[in-house]
């Protein structure tokens, strides 16, 4: 797409900029730049309050239809908001999973009853969500999930049993959207359902996973006769694969614009560090910084291209391009940060006190694995975008 700004768009930009300037004060100003992958523990309560403050003033769910509390914002207006949000160094949002993954999924595939029940809590940031996809034996191979869901004898509830892993922010979430096997006698992709499950119940156990960064935003989740209402299945029983793929499309499309707020902030700070410690004088480091800046622009343009294809609410397999691109870019940024730091980057403070660059490098090791590994994304692109023969299956 060719991105141009009209006078009305620039007026909207001024509105966003002025509002952020007037409201990023006090404790919200102190949380500027905090949060994001590997740093979700930073000022979490303040960031929740900030998200709710945004919601109270109509700045959440901009792209949602007006009937569900959004602004039906155009692609250009969404870009403007993300640009100004980044420039203001506003805190990284905590409601990403609900607002940018589940919300669009419910709008596209949910029932009206489900939309009326769940969208207001997402919009107002009064209910936080997590994603129950991966399992110990079903990471990138999502169709291999073994978590089961069966209807109760009276047909009023689904009863879930199984284990999920690498569940981001499950220890803080109120609800989880879970891919579970509801028809074990059907082929892999055809017996799955997409269920909305409350986390605060006796049948749900959450165990945080200690990461290399010594933080724990990922979790293991056990369901032991956990329950959810029979009506909390999205897209129909045994139709969960289609809905789950739609969610992944939203995750790898529109939502990457918000993700890139953090990326831009990290790159700008790394450039400033390289100038300050003199490493930018090294032609090789300067070349890599330049390539990183160009690469981030490419990520942005790809996200914009993805957004132009969402008019029907059905993201396609092309969204895998975004995951493959940003994961490698961010991993390479972590490696570049260590080279900018030099030998000092290998030393921590007392008690394993990591600085922001060490944390970035350690956490970004996982970027090419979680959310769908690079190998799987290449297969999706090859088979479903380019039309190449499928990879042989054992």
Automatic annotation (TrEMBL):
Gene3D superfamilies per record: Acyl-CoA dehydrogenase/oxidase, N-terminal domain, Butyryl-CoA Dehydrogenase, subunit A, domain 2, Butyryl-CoA Dehydrogenase, subunit A, domain 3
InterPro entries per UniProt: Acyl-CoA_Oxase/DH_mid-dom, Acyl-CoA_Oxase/DH_mid-dom_sf, AcylCo_DH-like_C, AcylCo_DH/oxidase_C, AcylCoA_DH/ox_N, AcylCoA_DH/ox_N_sf, AcylCoA_DH/oxidase_NM_dom_sf, Mycobact_Acyl-CoA_DH
Reported cofactor(s): FAD
Domain Acyl-CoA dehydrogenase/oxidase C-terminal: 238-386
SUPFAM superfamilies: Acyl-CoA dehydrogenase C-terminal domain-like (SSF47203), Acyl-CoA dehydrogenase NM domain-like (SSF56645)
Family per similarity comment: Belongs to the acyl-CoA dehydrogenase family.
Protein name as it appears in the record: Acyl-CoA dehydrogenase family protein
Species annotation: Catenulispora yoronensis
Source taxonomy: Bacteria, Bacillati, Actinomycetota, Actinomycetes, Catenulisporales
């Amino acid at each position: 797409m060719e991105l141009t700004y009209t006078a009305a768009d620039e007026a909207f930009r001024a509105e966003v900029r002025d509002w952020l300037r007037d409201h990023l004060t006090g404790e919200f100003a102190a949380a500027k730049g905090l949060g994001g992958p590997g740093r979700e523990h930073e000022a979490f309560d303040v960031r929740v309050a900030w998200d709710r403050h945004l919601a109270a003033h109509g700045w959440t769910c901009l792209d949602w239809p007006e009937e569900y509390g959004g602004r039906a914002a155009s692609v250009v207006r969404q870009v403007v908001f993300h640009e100004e949000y980044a420039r203001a160094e506003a805190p990284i949002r905590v409601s990403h999973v609900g607002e940018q993954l589940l919300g669009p999924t419910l709008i596209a595939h949910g029932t009206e009853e489900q939309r009326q029940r769940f969208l207001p809590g997402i919009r107002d940031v009064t209910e936080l969500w997590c994603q129950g996809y991966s399992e110990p034996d079903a990471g990138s191979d999502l169709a291999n999930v073994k978590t089961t869901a069966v209807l109760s004898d009276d047909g009023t509830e689904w009863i879930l049993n199984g284990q999920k892993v690498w569940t981001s922010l499950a220890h803080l979430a109120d609800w989880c959207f879970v891919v579970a096997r509801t028809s074990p006698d059907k082929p892999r992709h055809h017996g799955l359902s997409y269920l909305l499950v409350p986390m605060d119940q006796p049948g749900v156990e959450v165990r945080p996973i200690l990461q290399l960064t010594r933080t724990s935003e990922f979790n293991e989740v056990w369901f032991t006769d956990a329950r959810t209402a029979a009506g909390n299945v999205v897209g129909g029983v045994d139709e969960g694969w289609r809905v789950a793929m739609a969610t992944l499309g939203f995750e790898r499309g529109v939502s990457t614009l918000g993700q890139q707020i953090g990326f831009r902030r990290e790159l700008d700070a790394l450039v400033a560090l390289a100038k300050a410690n003199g490493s930018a004088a090294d032609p090789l480091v300067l070349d890599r910084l330049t390539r990183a800046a160009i690469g981030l622009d490419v990520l942005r343009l790809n996200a914009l291209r993805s957004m132009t294809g969402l008019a029907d609410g059905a993201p396609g397999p092309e969204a895998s391009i975004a995951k493959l691109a940003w994961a490698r870019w961010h991993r390479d940024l972590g490696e570049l940060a260590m080279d900018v730091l030099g030998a000092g980057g290998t030393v921590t403070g007392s008690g394993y006190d990591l600085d922001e660059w060490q944390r970035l490098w350690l956490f970004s090791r996982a970027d090419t694995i979680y959310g769908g590994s690079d190998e799987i994304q290449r297969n999706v692109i090859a088979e479903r975008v380019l039309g190449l023969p499928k990879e042989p299956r054992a």
